[in-house]
Specification:
FAD/NAD(P)-binding domain; 3 domains; five-stranded parallel β-sheet; globular; Fumarate Reductase Iron-sulfur Protein, Chain B, domain 2; 31% helix; alpha/beta; 16 strands
């Protein structure tokens, strides 16, 4: 009998004032009892709309049924059939606008906390070190054993190169390895994970979780070549000489800027640089030599998840006052409601209907203020978002020493500039053939942010999984 509760089982969290001073994970995760209770809220409806809302098509009713029965190994096994990074997705996937948005339980009360149960099952499996095919355990860890090798097939000797160890690349590699291919991932940074390690803070996604998920791919046979900048240290042309196919999943890591006066002053950061220092280079940890960013008053320009991450990092790095400056209202912010709520709880100020027009600097060319103008909302445009316009005569100055720009990213063009036959649009995104993820160059596929522009982790993973299937079809013809 499904749990009849109309509300989600609450997620234990760190207290706001305490967590704003540390990088420990905010959401503490369910206990086994809580996970079973939340999974038991699933109605097990035959139409299964939630599955259609998942970019990697996880069999959600099946894993929830297993979790509700205390079979956490079974739940994990179901998830891993289509999701290479369940512990990651359970934390950062926007379930509220995907699977949970379509949950029938949500028509009366709150949707099932699908992501929360997914996180629990994945964390339980990582702790238990159980393989994808572990026997049902009724909540008890099974005996640790290595993951089983991929099923042998005719094309097993074929080698595929994957460019980028972010969500798209990791998902593509995992699926190809499962299908029996020899896969090598080429990553420009010194650690694999892409945005999962340089962009998303420790308090939302602990790096030990990413490392554990990546270790699972290594056990599947996926190889990693780090510090490999494709287009510089090696080209796609050279990869095609060694591999049967190439997948480009290099993401969208080139930051956009405001293009306003004073933006080149010291103390102005792109969110990419700021978060990379704090996350991948662990500026918050005294054991690391990364220069710390000692700010007192910070403005973060933008209203997405990256802006929330940067603002919350600034608080934890010692800033006394942190403000989000956004030109629309909170209702229009693209960030997850959960992230906005957590930022507000921790003391981040929201300066809304406000747009920067000039960065002010002192005699040493260091930021000392941000001149802004108030905005007003107009009618919705073609994209459905309400237009904004300035209110003349409303300029004012915020006294600051740091400005962080978080207004989106676009793909870097390094890979395609050195590869004949690849085409891009005006946003630097790679063009792929209609109804396919194959580029205009035979044998070269692409997916994730490099094709769509900056999007979500799970959408990139879905593209990686789709590309793996298309590469398999291409190589087996």
């Amino acid at each position: 009998m499904p749990n009849v509760s109309l509300t989600k089982t609450p997620m234990p969290e760190q207290e706001p004032r305490a967590r704003a001073k540390n990088f420990g994970e905010v959401a503490l995760g369910y206990s086994p009892k809580q996970a079973m209770a939340e999974a038991g809220r699933c109605l097990g409806c035959k139409t299964r709309p939630c599955v259609g809302g998942c970019p990697v098509n996880v069999d959600i009713p099946a894993f929830l049924a297993a979790a509700a029965a205390g079979d956490f190994a079974g739940a994990y096994g179901v998830i891993r059939q289509t999701n290479a990074l369940p512990a990651v997705c359970g934390r950062v996937c926007p379930q509220e606008s995907q699977c949970e948005q379509l949950c029938v339980r949500g028509k009366k009360g709150e949707a099932v906390g699908i992501g929360r149960v997914e996180r629990f099952a994945a964390d339980w499996a990582l702790e238990a070190k159980c393989s994808e095919k572990s026997a049902p355990s009724q909540g008890q860890p099974s005996n640790p054993r290595p993951a089983e090798p991929p099923q042998k097939r005719a094309g097993e000797a074929l080698r595929v190169a994957v460019i980028g160890a972010g969500p798209a690349g990791l998902s593509c590699a995992g699926e190809l390895a499962r299908r029996g291919y020899q896969v090598t991932i080429f990553e420009a940074l010194h650690k694999p994970g892409g945005v999962l390690v340089y962009g998303i803070p420790e308090f939302r996604l602990p790096k030990r979780i990413v490392a554990a998920e990546i270790e699972g791919l290594r056990r599947q046979g996926v190889a990693f070549e780090l510090n490999a900048v494709i287009g510089k240290t090696i080209t796609v042309e050279e990869l095609l000489g060694e591999f049967s196919a190439v997948f480009i999943g290099s993401g969208a890591g080139l930051p956009n800027f405001m293009n306003i006066p004073g933006e080149n002053y010291n103390g102005v950061y792109s969110a990419n640089e700021y978060l990379t220092r704090a996350n991948l280079m662990r500026a918050f940890d005294p054991a690391y030599d990364t220069p710390t960013i000692q700010s007192k008053k910070v403005a973060v320009v933008g209203g997405g998840n990256v802006a929330m991450d940067a603002a919350r990092c600034a608080l934890r790095l010692g800033a006394r006052e942190v403000s989000i400056v956004y030109r629309r209202t909170e209702a229009e912010m693209p960030a997850r409601r959960e992230e906005i709520h957590h930022a507000a709880e921790e003391g981040v100020r929201f300066v809304l209907l406000t747009a920067p027009v000039r960065v002010l600097g002192d005699e040493n060319r260091h930021v000392c203020g941000l001149e802004c103008v108030q905005m007003q909302l107009g009618e919705p445009g073609a994209d459905g978002r309400r237009r904004v316009s300035e209110l003349p005569g409303t300029n004012f100055v915020m006294e600051l020493d740091t400005v962080i720009v978080a207004i989106g990213n676009k793909p870097n063009t390094l890979v395609e500039e050195g590869t004949a036959g690849l085409e891009t649009n005006r946003h630097n995104c790679l063009l792929v053939r209609e109804n396919s993820l194959q580029t205009m160059r035979d044998g070269v596929f692409a997916g994730g942010d490099i094709v769509t522009g900056a999007a979500t982790v799970i959408l990139a993973m879905g593209a990686g999984r789709q590309a793996a299937a298309e590469i398999d079809d291409y190589l087996q013809k």
